[in-house]
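Handoff note, outgoing to incoming analyst
You'll be picking up this chain. Sequence as last confirmed:
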Amino acid sequence: MRILILLNNCLLMEKIMNFFKNFLVLSLLTLSALVLNSRAYAYGDYGLSCTNDVYGIHLYAASGDFVTQGTGDYGVYTGLNCAYAGGGRTNSSAIVGGDIARMAANSVIGAVSGRLSAAMSHSSDTAAHMSYSSNGNGIGMAANHIVGGLSVWTNFANSNFENDQTFTNVQLDSNNYDGDASAVTVGVDKRLGNLIVGLSYTAFDSDIDTSVNKGNIKTEGETIGLYVGLNTGAVTISAGAGQGEYEIDTTREDLGSGTTISASDITADVMYYHLGVSGEMNRGKLSFRPRVAYRNFDLDVPAFTDVVPNDGNSIDGAGFTTRDDSIAGKTYSSDMTEVGLGIALSTSAKITPFVDLSYVSEDTTSAAYNNEAVNDSGADLAASAPDGYVTYGAGLMINLQSKISGYLAVNEVTNRDDYSETTVSGSLKLKF
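Most recent structure output, in case you need it:
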C-alpha cells in the first residue's frame, strides 16, 4: 500500500512539473509574439531602413498612398513609422538649432555683461558693485590686476533646460527635448578714464536629447569677442561683438531598421553682437540697477549629410544598401531685447545678497519638421514658438577676508512657451 501511495505521489509531481513547463513555454511564446509584433509595427516586417535603395519609402512617395496597397506598401517593408513620421525623420539641428543659439547668446554675452556691470559701477559701496549678469546666465568676477594696467577676469555658468511639449510617439510631431549647457569665459581689459576696452574668450558646449526622432545633438566650440563700456556719469553704455566656430555632432534613430543615423564634425560659423544701457541708484544699504539690453546671436550651420547605415538583412538577397539623407544649410538665430532690475543689499563686509528680475522679448528660430511621406491625419503638434519669457533669481556675493571672494547665484526662466530652465553660476577670485 505504501508503495502505491509513493507511486501516486510521484505521478502527481510529474504532472505538476509538466504543467509548469508547458505554462512557461506558452508564456515565452506569447511574449515573443508580442515583441515581434511590436517590432513589426515600428520597424516593418523586414526591419529595413526608411531609405533602403530598393524598398525605401522615398521610392514610392511620388505614386500616392501605398500604405494599404499590397506588396509595395510602406508598412510591409519599412514600417508605418517611416511613412507617417515627420519630426521623427528630422535631424535634431532643425528641432533645437534656435534654442542652441539662444543659450549660447545668454552664456557668451552674459559673461561680458556681468564683467562690465562690476567694472563700471559708480561708487565704491559694496552693494553698488553688483556684478551678476544682466541676463541671469553668468556672474562676473571682479578683475585681478596684471601688468600694464590690464585686468583679467573669469566667469562660468551651467544650465539645465527642457521643452515639455507633449510627446506621444514618433509618428506625431513634438518639440519635446531636454538638455544642459555650460560655458567658461576668460577676459582681459584695460580702463582708459571712463572707458573700458576688452577682449573675451568663451568655451561653450551643450548636449540635448530630442524625443520625436530618438535623437541627440552635441555642440561645442569657442568664440572671441571685443567689448567696450563707457561710464557717462548718469548711465553706463556697453557694446560688443564677436565670432567663432562650433562643432556639431548629431544622431537619430532610423525608424525602419532601428539603427543609428549620424553626422559628425559639422563646423558652424558663429557671430554675435550686443548693446546695453544701465543705471544705478543707492539708497542706504540698497543698490538698484535698472537696465535695457539687446543681444543677437547667429549660428550658421552648413549643408551636411546624415549617414544612414546599410541594412543587415534583405528580402531577396539584394537591397542591403541605403540612401544617406542630405540636410540643407540653415542659419539659426536668436534676437533678444531685455528690460530688468537688480537689487543688492549690503548686509556686511563679507556677504551681499541680491535679487534680479527681468522680461525678455525674443525672436528665436523655431523647430521645423520634415513632411510626412503619407498623411496619417494624426494630431501633430505645432512647434513651440516662444516670443518672450521672464527670468528671476537670487544669489550671494561673498568676500572672505581679503584674499578670497566669489559669487554664487541661481536663476530660473519661466513663462516661455513649453519651456523651463535653471541656471547655476558663480566665480571665485584669489588675491595674492
